[in-house]
Amino acid sequence: MINPDARNKDRLTIRVDHERKQHATAIAESMGTDLPNLVNMFLAQLITENGMPFKPTNDKVMTELDEALADVKAGRVKTFTSADDLFNHIHQLENTADDQDL
């Protein structure tokens, strides 16, 4: 008997680096799923988003902005009561950097 779920399904064959596949398989299994299910989830989200379901970037500025936002959300920030306090802090940082260059 033919599996009724298999009637309208296509097979997708891709080539992937062996180590990448092993690593991805281990992660998928740790999440209680497998690679085919994750690929199907990716495709479903691709359709839902009408584009990439994540933001691929190699932009250093965006990475730094994301890190800065994470610092703010985690409370790893310094606040100032005046512009003078801010500029004094910046000068202290510059002096510290200059001392480290020596």
TrEMBL record:
UniProt xrefs under Pfam families: RelB
Record field: transmembrane: none
InterPro entries linked to this entry: Arc_rbn_hlx_hlx, RelB/DinJ
Keywords: Toxin-antitoxin system
GO biological process, one term: regulation of DNA-templated transcription
Keyword field contains Repeat: no
Gene3D superfamilies given in the database record: Met repressor-like
Superkingdom of origin: Bacteria
Classification via PANTHER family: ANTITOXIN DINJ-RELATED (PTHR38781)
Family statement: Belongs to the RelB/DinJ antitoxin family.
Protein name: DNA-damage-inducible protein J
Organism per entry: Levilactobacillus hammesii DSM 16381
